[in-house]
């Protein structure tokens, strides 16, 4: 995932399509744990 000018590895409990809005719910080492934001 791109955040600003950096790339970060991510993990999610479900498959997320490109362009899905997400939120970071945890950090494990340098990996961002994300989930979809449902509006």
Primary descriptors:
mainly beta, NA-bd_OB-fold, three-stranded mixed sheet, 39 residues, two-stranded antiparallel ribbon, globular, 0% helix
Show the helix and strand layout:
Elements: E1 2-3, E2 6-7, E3 10-11, E4 22-28, E5 31-36
Parallel strand pairs: 3-5
Antiparallel strand pairs: 1-2, 4-5
Q: Helix and strand string, N-terminal first?
A: EEEEE
Q: What portion of residues is helical?
A: under 10%
Largest sheet: 3 strands, mixed
Mean pLDDT: 94
Strand content: over 45%
Tell me, briefly, the overall form. globular
How many structural units, i.e. domains? Answer: 1
Low-confidence stretches: none
The N- and C-terminal alpha carbons lie at a distance of 20 Å
User: What's the β-strand tally?
Assistant: 5
Strand order across the largest sheet? 3-5-4
Given helix and strand content, the structural type is mainly beta
Count up the helices. Answer: 0
Radius of gyration: 10 Å
